[in-house]
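Hi R.,

Here's the input for the magnesium ion complex you asked about:
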Amino acid sequence: PKYVYAFAEGHKDLKDLLGGKGANLAEMTNMGLAVPPGFTITTAACRAFLATGIQPPELDDQVDRHLDALQTAAGRRLGDPDDPLLVSVRSGAVFSMPGMMETVLDVGLNDSSVLGLARAAGDDRFAWDSYRRLVQMFGTTVLGIDGAHFDAVFDAAKLARGTADDLGLDADDLRGVVGAYQAVVRERSGREFPQDPREQLDLTVRAVFGSWNAPRAITYRRRERIPADLGTAVTVQAMVFGNLGPDSGSGVAFTRDPATGEPGVYGDYLAHAQGEDVVAGIRNTLPLSELERLDPVSHRDLLANMATLERHYRDLCDIEFTIERGRLWMLQTRVGKRTAGAAFVIACQLVDDGLIDADEALRRVTGAQLVRLMFPRFAPDAATTVLAVGMNASPGAATGAAVFDSPTAVARAAAGEDVILVRRETNPDDLAGMIAAKGVLTGRGGRTSHAAVVARGMGRTCVCGAEDLDVDVDARKIVGPGGVMVAEGDLLSIDGSTGEVFLGAVPVVASPVMEYFEGSLDPASPEAGELVRAVHRLMEHADTTRRLAVYANADTGADAARARRFGADGIGLCRTEHMFLGDRREQVERLVLADTDAERDAALAELLPLQRADFIEVFTAMQGLPVTIRLLDPPLHEFLPDLTELSVRVALAEERGRVDAADVRLLAAVRRLHEENPMFGLRGVRLGIVVPGLFGMQVRAIAQAAATLRRNGVEVRPEIMVPLVGAVQELQAVAEETSAVLADEAERHGVELDAAIGTMIELPRAALTAGQIAESAEFFSFGTNDLTQTTWGFSRDDVEGAFFSRYLERGIFGTSPFETLDIDGVGRLIRIAAREGRATRPDIRLGVCGEHGGDPDSIHFFHHEGLDYVSCSPFRVPVARLESARAAL
Ligand code: ADP
Ligand code: MG
Ligand code: MG
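And here is the predicted structure with magnesium ion in place:
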């Protein structure tokens, strides 16, 4: 196979083979930009090497041939004692892995060619400077010597010279450094620094191959979900020299500001410097504008090249360049990383510049970026100290006093204090504290740890797994890096978007994007700013592009109103259980305790007007958009007192001889309703069938609310959804009762009442018999939370802490199936149910409610399966609008 490509043979779409760096160097070469000549050894060669431990036999010959061509193109030969060619050996993975892989510069120097280089360039200092760089990079990268040994030599040389700066060392000093470095190599690796340039080259290529499997690279890939078996390409390229004196230098630049998206060229330049000096902070760099003064010709060329690249790539590019004695060379480019805000701003600018169309602009932004823009942010200032960086588990910016247990969090929060709950890791007992706290910080656990999952579910800011922090809950303190102490009550700030943990209170700014979605910031107003205008433009385009309707899960008038503001097309899940909580517990207790039909009907009659009022609120907020109401789902005992607590109360009362008859009855009922496994117990449609009149009362409340509003000229579109159906017979029973109640109320009020009746599909049996169920269902709503639990046979509340982290580490899951739909399993059930449901009832409406309705990857799946809508929490509605449009492109 062909393992080596000259730059002229490649192009930017060969990243899989040539790595990002090699592919883009080829592209720039073919665009006619000034790129030092070179060639790239493919990722396939690396994979072969890593698999067998030896390089593929053809590789040597192919490198020989390309090296010959390179030497001809450069007009110099490797190792030539008079005028040697030097090369860089550069790693280049398909996905950028910043700082993970190795690059060695100035390969080809030895004790004799260094003299030739000095003569040819007419600069001794430059030649020895290049040689010391090679010995150090080769020593650390290829021979695995700790860089500190070289640093110690270099620092000593500077100290001896009385200079803080590498430029303070002259040719003689650097010759001395090279000698000392060679001694370090001898001492630490037990071998001489190799004098044969070709041996240097081969060893370096192999070391770069091997760096793919360095521990830090493995860790990085695991975290970023980069496949482990891709391998790296290796680019061999003629050196150009930024360290050839003051009219040479090296720099990095962006074609737009990657932080804000503002147009204009941004970058740093360092004269008399090579390679990574510019980012290593060894001397103060200059802004690019200064280069205009130093070297106007190169500066002009650079701007022209950057404009060419941006037009060519039709995107923000970042570049690395070197100037050798007034001549500009391009050393790297790629489509540059940017902040979430800059992504939106730049996408719109590129549309305005005529480089991309509006659809392409949508491809350039993601729902995940939009989420980041919807949270308040910290605005760290000079006084801010970063204590540690953990995992960005749940976005937001929270400041408060550190507390170390749930009761303290609850108590201090109740007293009006903002607190951050700090734990090694959280467990279900911490829930009250998590609710009370502004944010949650843990020292252990990943993005699917209990803390992370629960915090995300309730929208609480969370940083987890800050492993540099030693959280000592008993001593109520954190010991941070360098022994920094945080005691209970000390202020902490945590940024759930970046994972940063700050000491003290950091100033916070509200999210203008959130203000826009909330309707308090008009995108046309001058205060809106470029970011909000860009988000608004792309959201408008998304709404005209998407096919999926986006509904919200909302239980109250206030939630429904927010859902509307966020752009929901309806409500896909209105849960009725909250209507049974609070003051209404008493009525529910009466319902459960009823011994006779009359008692039960009386209890239901009391609940009816309360429910009706709730529905009137929600319908009014939704103005004729569909409102899908789920009849009661949770088991009744959830509305009753806790079994243990009540048992204790009754036992104590008995001991004192003061038996409370009501409590005793209640206890008997709680015992009767107690279930070992409530998830699989008396809930959903089963409850509707077992407790006569319960669902009927709910339907009556819906009907009366609809009738009242309709008579007043308000449009309403109720839909009635039956939970946890597993067999069509269950649905039939409820549907009959429902139709009868609707007809009855319609007649009573003299209005038409047409509410669609449908079901949730959340049991495998429902999915597998969807063809039958569709006979009684006008719509299906896939309840993907329960469907995931029942398909996998694990309960979400129990598994996250117990074994999910291990499963994720072992790669059994890529991501939690509760976050992103398990397409192979749960997705297959959805596909079957959709197909068989449609076969029975071609116009059946299909939707999703559950967390997955707001998850980008899952939304793409639902779109491609031809579903009609997704429903998610109001805060996720903008994300779902954007991602369903992106899925439709
Ligand atoms: P990284 O992937 O870490 O950025 P690179 O392979 O880009 O590593 O190399 C780092 C730096 O080394 C480059 O930015 C450039 O400044 C310098 N460099 C690489 N190859 C050459 C070369 N042929 N001539 C001059 N400088 C080079
Ligand atoms: Mg680097
Ligand atoms: Mg680079």
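One thing worth noting: The pocket of adenosine-5'-diphosphate (ligand 1) is lined by residues 36, 88, 90, 103, 105, 237-240, 250, 275-276, 320, 322, 331-332 (CB under 6 Å).

Cheers,
M.
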